[in-house]
Structure formats: C-alpha cells, structure tokens
Amino acid sequence: MTSFQVKELKNFMTKLLTTDCFDSFLLAEASVSSQAEYTIDGHINRDFYTREELGDPQVCPYEFVRWSEIRPVCFQMIRGKRAPSRFKFVLYLAPDYVPGVLKGADPALSPEQVKALVLTIRYDGASAALVTGTSFSTFVLDKTLDAQWDKTMRRFLEKKGIACLEK
Fold first, then answer.
1. Contact in structure between 122 and 91 (CB atoms under 8 Å)
2. Alpha carbon distance 65, 67 (integer Å)
3. For 30, phi and psi rounded to 5 degrees?
4. d(Cα 37, Cα 147) in Å, to the nearest integer?
C-alpha cells in the first residue's frame, strides 16, 4: 500500500472527472460532501436489468459500474462555484487489466485469486491523496502483487501527467 499526495489538484481533478484517464477502473463506492451528502454504491443493480441483459457480457461484464459510465454523475455532484468539503472514490482496476499487473508478481498467483486492485481517492477540502491497495479472494502470504501494483500506479500516474509526492 502506497499513498500519493497530488501536487497539482486542478490538473488531477480535470483528468479524473472530464477525461478517460481513469476509465480502466470500476467504481466500488463514492461519497461526496457538498450542499448535501451523496453516496453511491457502485455494485451493478441486478434488478434494473432483464435476464438477457444480465447474461450479456457487453451490458453487465462486471460486478461494479464502469468509472466511464458514472464519471459524469460524479462530475455533476462536484462541479460548482465551491469545491466540496470532501469526497472519496474507491476504484477497482477492471478485471481485464489484472493479468497485466500480475506479470511482475509471484507467478503462482492467478487472476482468480485477486479480488481487486484498489485505488482510493480522498479529497479533504484542500488536498487529494491516492492510496493503493490489494484484496484477495483467498489468503495469500506473498506480497509481490502489492509491490507490483504500487509500481504500476507510479508508472500510470507519470504516464498520465499526474504529479504526486509519494508518502
């Protein structure tokens, strides 16, 4: 687990909320505190879809909603003349990308053992921090995936032009 302090908040917020920069992620949960408290549970609402749609991997491929689909809603909650007093987004790397991250970790790990590669974004009214994390579906002693996920996020942030200080 690594914490990254965002150095250029405006640049980061623009990339997070108005570009496809983080579209390889799914939203697990969100909370925004502004004129009201907003909370989003990112789980796909299975009651909303027909049986056929649920079986279609193009319509419902994941357990959580794609960031690209919910990003405009989050943008609407945050935009305005005043910044929110705080927010938190918990993003999971889409399962399609997990095998690529696993390449640098323990070869015995399989994608099925990885529940989530997590990126938590917290804003406290003045600054934003990004914290990495891993979650497994089974008990795993090996920590190479943690280190690989941190390394992957460092490269991702650098490639996307998001300046951060590592804490």
1. no
2. 6
3. -145, 145
4. 35
Residue-wise pLDDT for 28-61, tens only, equals 999 999 989 999 999 999 899 888 888 888 888 8
Strand pairing report for 128-136 and 3-6: antiparallel
pLDDT of residue 119: 98
In the numeric block, which tokens belong to residue 87?
A: 């927010």
d(CA 130, CA 153): 10
Dihedral pair phi/psi, residue 112, rounded to 5°? -65, -25
Domain count, the chain: 1
pTM of the model: 0.93
- Both tokens of 122, joined, read 């917290």
Structural domain of 157: 3-166
Tokens of 26: 């799914």
The set of residues, in sequence order, having a beta carbon less than 8 Å from that of 66 and lying 6+ positions away, is 23, 25, 26, 27, 94
- Using 50, 70 and 90 to split pLDDT, how confident is the model at 141? confident
Q: Determine the residue type at 70.
A: I
Cβ-contact 122, 128 below 8 angstroms: yes
